[in-house]
Amino acid sequence: MKKFFLSIVMTIFLSSCAVEKEKLTENIGKYFPPNIDDTNFKSSVITDKNFEETWTTVIDFVNDSFFKIENLEKDSGLITLSFGSKEAENFIDCGDFEYTLFFTGEEFKGSYIDYAKSGLLAMLKAKMNINIRKIDNKSTKISINTNYTYSTQHALGYYDPKLNQTYSFVTGGYQTINVINPIKGSIPTRTCKSTNFAENAIFNVIK
Prior knowledge:
alpha+beta; six-stranded antiparallel β-sheet; three-stranded antiparallel β-sheet; 43% strand
């Protein structure tokens, strides 16, 4: 009887250790999406400069910046620019992320973009359309719309649906996508949105 009781106690003890060991090797994380309720950004402004002055100011600024000119149509007031960067955090916000790998003790706490860059190839590409329109001889309206594409892929370049993800959104917008096998404790979606940094760079120069 004592042997039987001892056997039960040992079984419970070993089972408890196994559960505890499983917990210690379990990855735990949290994801905090960016604020998508920020609607203060306006994609159009009116400046007290005439059309010619506004056009020249924008072109001069673009030529000395991170933008690349794709197309110019002065008669219609259209400027098409492109830009891309491995430093996507300058232009977009994908929230914050934190995790703990209990097996190795590794921890991370920071932006989701930094997390993606730590193990993936991440790239931002964007195309911006600027429309400059004369209101009268002393004022001009300038409107900006940008199409953003932020993609991540496996560092070795092969396709893996768990790692290869693409977010597409426009100025003032965002996209939320589902991720495969999200780390335990985190929600199953990730969200990226524009910070309006590129748009404000244009607007600030004409103020």
